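Please check this today:
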Amino acid sequence: MNPANMMAQVKKMQAEMLRVQEELATTRVTGSASGGLVRVEMTCDHRVVGVKIDPKAIDPDDMETLEDLLVVAINDALANVAQESQKRMSAVTGGMRLPGLM
């Protein structure tokens, strides 16, 4: 492959990756804990956009459990962000793992 064609392909991949990153910024995923008693919604650019707590999860005498459920739900949402980002970026990169992208 000649250098000009290679550069054209690199520029095309960069543009596609930028498009996917912009798309991911508005893609929402949900993480949950305790069967959905606590749910956290975040975008794939790591912004928390919503938290839902079922009243059954609230015990004023045991706030530690609620705090733990929030941590679990946030970590679940982050895992879902990573999975969605990996899936979409793999489509662009042909499965190549590029440092700093995911």
The chain has two helices and three strands. The first helix runs from residue 3 to 26.
